[in-house]
Design a protein that fits this description.
Number of strands: 30
Strand content: 15-25%
Largest sheet: 7 strands, mixed
Oligomer: single chain
Distance between the termini: 15 Å
Helix content: 25-40%
Structural class: alpha/beta
Number of helices: 25
Length: 729
């Protein structure tokens, strides 16, 4: 069996780019422009990393000595920032490579971003030069780089004066959105480390940056603004490694058709299937958000709070109506608000002087009652001592200018949070309420403050999901199907047999019978069946199978058999089988004249079961994607399905199934008993292993319907279609 080679991590000297000891600027002018802005950015840190302008025409630029060439510098720099016109970039890089410089930032535009043949060819030359010199090149078409922790900047980005040092590093394929992220973080007093603009990613890609940041001790959370991935497998490998070390929060652009076109126009990068990225992130605990605000707030929550032990959340507030809003938005975000344990409930009733049980979300019956005699401390301690509480939050309508009552509550909550290993946070109902008085409070006191209730609850859900992912690592990963395993040899034999028989113009479409032979060889539960050449043979096969049978025309030229009358269901007697076989043959010859007919598939009837679809489609970015969902004839109408990136584990599948609408039918519905979900999961696991082992051979696989029968009776694949890929056909 064939399988693409694994994707190794980059061996380019990226540390010279991200931790430079000295920087050279090529293309800088005293008249202004990109190079001048980059030089000025270093002033923020007092040029603790020496930065040398290179310009053969002047002696000084903005008070800095200018050097005639790279050879004239006091010492060899680690990094050169190139801001010359696009056509001059190759010569500038060649000079840097000849001088032994190991890394470069190319801020110049006019490469693949120009969406012209000339621009794409120019970018190819840049890549070839960088590879030949083993040079870590960022960009082109990027804003540059800054690190607040390590104290250097070589960037055109607008780093606000209010920006503060912290544990969040951002890698962005959009320079403009990088500015927005930095501005909002500065307004909120949220601490940052790296701000990296990756541009076109001609040489270094998003995968390289996040892989480096995984081992950077000053980075606790990695935030990404992502348009697409040039090498999906390499990006996936980086995400899977990094997510096991520290949290990743991603704003994925290009989810809509318009967004994908804009992404291609912006950087020349295909956005890729949104479902594939969503599957990768979901399976690795990566928080995928939908706005700059959510990116900042979610990253800040990860930065300041420990991971919870489970998903049980208690949210306190000071208004009865507010508990309804918290409950509504919490349910939409997937938050679990369990009942408060009786003993804890009674303890809180005594503290607050209330003679009734509290619900969750918890209404403290007014703010004064919570402030009285330090009650907030006692309530928080009671809840944090309860083993049934994993996350504690206080939701208030925070005043941007501050308020003594809020100050007292939050100060005391910060003290309580300092003595626990559980996540504690404050959520403001509104946006733009934490940018003045409360700016930087969370970082200073170690208590997460989150703006906007809806975003805050979603951020809590992301925190819980990541914690669950990390807890499950001990049970992972399933390696998937190794193409060299002896178990896959029957599949290879079935494939080779089919290829030898392929004398029909190299058709890429396999018939159902051919497809099921391969699937059966892979150990998948297909129906009992055999191929008949004549109606008389069909009668004999039906007798061997016993019971009602289905008869289906088999032709690589007729993939949708029922559309042309090529399927007959429920033939019982020999006469019915004979007549039905002749009927499907006649329909095929009449409605598809000239189609190559292999025969009639005689198949056991499977009727009692929930119809599911199990399939694979080959994505040029990530490779094979597996689809699981509701099947049958309405599959394209309801589109009740989810996408997975194989290999997957049982936990992935058990987490996925409840999100499907068809899950209600699997659990038992309107008198029908529960279905064999365990057998469905085993079938999915086996199918995913088969997909991994045969990676690159198939363009698409469609198993529909897959009947999930009553509990204990297993599943049956009633229909199947395989499309070969490329030269494999």
């Amino acid at each position: 069996m064939h399988q693409p080679a694994p994707q190794p991590a980059s061996k380019l000297p990226i540390e010279a780019l991200l931790r430079p000891r000295t920087i050279a600027l090529v293309g800088i002018s005293a008249k202004g422009g990109a190079g001048a802005n980059i030089l000025k950015s270093g002033q923020r840190f007092g040029f603790t990393v020496p930065t040398w302008p290179v310009n053969p025409n002047v002696d000084e630029i903005f008070g800095h000595r200018a050097y005639k060439s790279l050879r004239d510098l006091p010492q060899q720099p680690d990094c050169v920032v190139v801001s010359v016109p696009a056509e001059a970039v190759p010569d500038a890089l060649a000079e840097a490579a000849a001088a032994g410089i190991r890394s470069a930032y190319v801020v110049s535009e006019g490469f693949a971003d120009a969406a012209t043949d000339e621009g794409r060819a120019r970018q190819e030359r840049l890549v070839a030069l960088a590879r030949a010199a083993n040079m870590a090149v960022a960009g082109p078409n990027c804003m540059g780089l800054a690190s607040l922790h390590y104290g250097f900047a070589a960037t055109m980005a607008d780093i606000p004066a209010e920006a503060v040092t912290g544990g969040i590093s951002l890698v962005s394929q959009s320079g403009g959105l990088l500015n927005s992220f930095a501005e909002l973080s500065g307004n909120r007093g949220i601490g940052l480390n790296y701000l990296i603009s990756s541009g076109n990613e001609a040489v270094l890609e998003m995968a390289d940056y996040i892989d480096y940041l995984a081992d950077d001790a000053a980075t606790r959370v990695i935030a990404c603004i992502l348009e697409g991935a040039k090498n999906g497998r390499r990006f996936r490998a980086a995400v899977e490694r990094v997510a096991r070390i520290k949290p990743i929060v991603v704003l994925k652009l290009g989810r809509s058709e318009f967004g994908q076109r804009a992404t291609l126009a912006h950087t020349g990068t295909l956005a890729g299937r949104h479902e594939a990225f969503a599957a990768l992130f979901r399976q690795n605990g990566v928080a995928m958000v939908d706005s700059i605000d959510a990116l900042v707030e979610t990253a800040a929550l990860f930065d300041l709070t420990p991971l919870p032990q489970d998903d049980r959340v208690v949210m306190m507030t000071v208004s009865g109506g507010a508990t309804s809003l918290i409950g509504d938005l919490g349910e939409a975000a997937g938050i679990n608000f369990p009942p408060i344990a009786p003993a804890t409930n009674e303890r809180i009733q005594k503290i607050l002087g209330v003679n009734r049980a509290f619900g969750n979300p918890l209404d403290t019956v007014g703010l004064p009652r919570l402030r009285k005699e330090g009650n907030i401390t006692a309530v928080a301690q009671a809840l944090l001592a309860d083993e049934g509480v994993d996350v504690l939050g206080l939701v208030l309508g925070m005043r941007a200018g501050g308020w003594d009552s809020h100050q007292e509550l939050i100060d005391r909550l910060a003290e309580a949070a300092a003595g626990t290993h559980k996540p504690v946070l404050v959520v403001s109902f509104m946006s733009n309420s934490l940018t003045r008085h409360w700016r930087g409070y969370g970082r200073a006191r170690g208590l997460a403050l989150v703006e906007d209730l809806e975003r805050g609850l979603k951020a809590v859900r992301h925190l819980i999901d990541y914690a669950q992912f990390r807890r499950r690592l001990s049970a992972r990963p399933r390696a998937g199907g190794d193409p060299g395993d002896a178990q896959w040899k029957p599949v290879q034999v079935a494939l080779d047999s089919r290829l030898r028989r392929n004398e029909r113009g190299k058709s890429k479409i396999l018939t159902e019978a051919e497809s099921k032979k391969i699937l059966a060889a892979a150990g998948l539960p297909v129906t009992r069946e055999a191929l008949a050449q004549t109606p008389a043979e069909a009668v004999g096969i039906a007798a061997e199978i016993g019971g009602p049978v289905a008869l289906k025309i088999q032709s690589p030229d007729i993939p949708h058999k029922s559309d042309i009358g090529g399927v007959y269901l429920g033939a019982c007697t020999p006469a019915q089988v004979q007549e039905a076989a002749q009927q499907v043959l006649d329909n095929a010859h009449r409605n598809c004249a000239g189609a190559a007919v292999d025969g009639i598939l005689v198949q056991e009837m499977v009727e009692d079961g929930v119809e599911m679809i199990l399939g694979m489609t080959y994505d040029e970015t990530f490779g094979p994607l597996v689809v699981v969902g509701a099947g049958g004839i309405a599959v394209e109408v309801f589109k009740d399905a989810t996408v997975l990136l194989p290999p997957v584990g049982r936990d992935d599948l058990r987490d996925m199934l409840p999100g499907l609408k068809v899950a209600k039918l699997l659990d038992g519905f309107r008198g029908a008993g529960p279905r064999d979900v365990d057998a469905l999961i085993e079938c999915c696991l086996r199918f995913c292993d088969f997909v991994v082992a045969s990676d690159g051979r198939f363009q698409a696989i469609d198993l529909n319907p897959v009947f999930v029968r009553a509990r204990g009776q297993g599943v049956r694949i009633a229909d199947a279609l395989i499309e070969m890929r490329g030269s494999e056909a």
